[in-house]
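PROTEIN DESIGN WORKSHEET
SECTION A - STRUCTURE
LENGTH: 319
TOKENS:
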């Protein structure tokens, strides 16, 4: 496990909470310093589109229609933290108390298009209520999360809420992950490398521990070299890339490996590439992702884990 000599504890964490912050950091990174974030906030963000039907290729299994599917994955697979809204935890958390959770404190649907109104994801709950919920429920909640849409006309409100949230979380020894996406009528290219780097730099100025951004593209192409700019711009804030829509496992795992070992990212934030699979396959995908992210294994080894021909002993992580 990492100790206080290995982990930068922000100065806005009170001395009385430094030990708790370190414990939470080790919990959500499994003592490795890297983050495997299983993103499960899409029930709001994408409504039911990501969970049922063929709407084009018919790849989504029946398992994914049940909201409990993601809890089963989080419990059986190897993850760092499962991100979801507090209502989901209130309904399912008692049956999955072994899972570390990140509480997403704002969310919005995709029904209102930016041609109608620039995006604004308002704060649902404050950190104090999450802390009380954690104490009452006994669940493992090491972190909270919040989304900012840079370039939106509502950007000032979201920046103010995020700044307050980061400060409040640190006061309680909790960590923060900011989802930051350039988006709005004035944003021509949401995945422009300089804009993505700008987003990670904003996360740093807000004091966030981690920032989740989209993988940047230049001339329609993404690459680990392009992503380096965003990692450097973030300074001491740790960067992870959103997994995006489902793709084949080998391509995804190779990209993840390059994000960490070429770009310098600190982990991953993956949703659809995990939960849009039957349970057994989804658990193996979690383990394959964690093999690269947490256990520093090769892409070939991770693919074998996903295919079921190899296993990884995660019991010694952070030892």
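SECTION B - SEQUENCE
RESIDUE ASSIGNMENT:
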């Amino acid at each position: 496990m990492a100790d206080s000599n290995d982990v930068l504890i922000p100065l806005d964490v009170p001395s009385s909470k430094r030990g708790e912050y370190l414990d939470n950091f080790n919990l959500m990174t499994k003592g490795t310093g890297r983050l495997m974030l299983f993103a499960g906030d899409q029930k709001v963000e994408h409504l039911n589109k990501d969970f049922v039907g063929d709407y084009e290729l018919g790849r989504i299994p029946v398992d994914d229609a049940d909201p409990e599917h993601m809890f089963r994955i989080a419990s059986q697979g190897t993850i760092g933290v499962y991100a979801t809204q507090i209502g989901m935890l209130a309904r399912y958390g008692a049956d999955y108390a072994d899972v570390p959770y990140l509480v997403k404190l704002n969310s919005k649907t995709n029904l209102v298009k930016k041609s109608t109104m620039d995006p604004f994801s308002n704060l649902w709950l404050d950190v104090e209520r999450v802390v009380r919920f954690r104490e009452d429920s006994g669940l493992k909640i090491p972190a909270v999360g919040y989304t900012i849409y840079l370039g939106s006309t509502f950007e000032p409100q979201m920046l103010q809420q995020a700044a307050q949230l980061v400060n409040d979380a640190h006061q309680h020894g909790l960590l923060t992950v900011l989802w930051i996406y350039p988006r709005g009528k004035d944003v021509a290219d949401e995945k422009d490398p300089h804009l993505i780097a700008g987003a990670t730099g904003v996360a740093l100025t807000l004091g966030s521990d981690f920032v989740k951004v989209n993988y940047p593209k230049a001339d329609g192409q993404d690459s680990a070299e392009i992503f380096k700019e965003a990692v450097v711009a973030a300074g001491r804030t740790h960067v992870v890339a959103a997994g995006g829509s489902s793709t084949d496992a080998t391509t995804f795992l190779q990209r993840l490996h390059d994000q960490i070992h070429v770009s310098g990212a600190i982990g991953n934030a993956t949703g659809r590439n995990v939960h849009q699979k039957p349970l057994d396959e989804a658990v193996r995908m979690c383990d394959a992702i964690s093999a690269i992210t947490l256990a520093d294994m090769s892409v070939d080894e991770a693919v074998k884990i996903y295919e079921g021909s190899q296993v990884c002993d995660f019991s010694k992580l952070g030892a």
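SECTION C - NOTES
The first strand starts at residue 35 and ends at 39.
The beta strands are 35-39, 81-84, 100-104, 140-150, 175-182, 210-213, 238-242, 267-270.
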